[in-house]
Amino acid sequence: MIMTGTGLMRTGTLMPTRVGPGDIVLIPAGVPQQISNVGESDLIFHCICTPRFTPGCYEALGETP
User: Does 62 map to a domain?
Assistant: First the structure.
């Protein structure tokens, strides 16, 4: 859940979406995702991962276009 700030969320092959306070993003396991701060203030969000996150599954996606 986005707590404060404005972000740009990329999930899989979907078009990037702006997210803000109160928004929730559901991402299926194994789907590439990235969130970038596009606002004037800090982007703060809570993340619940299931299955749990492990560093071995991390892959950098590059910069947001």
Answer: no
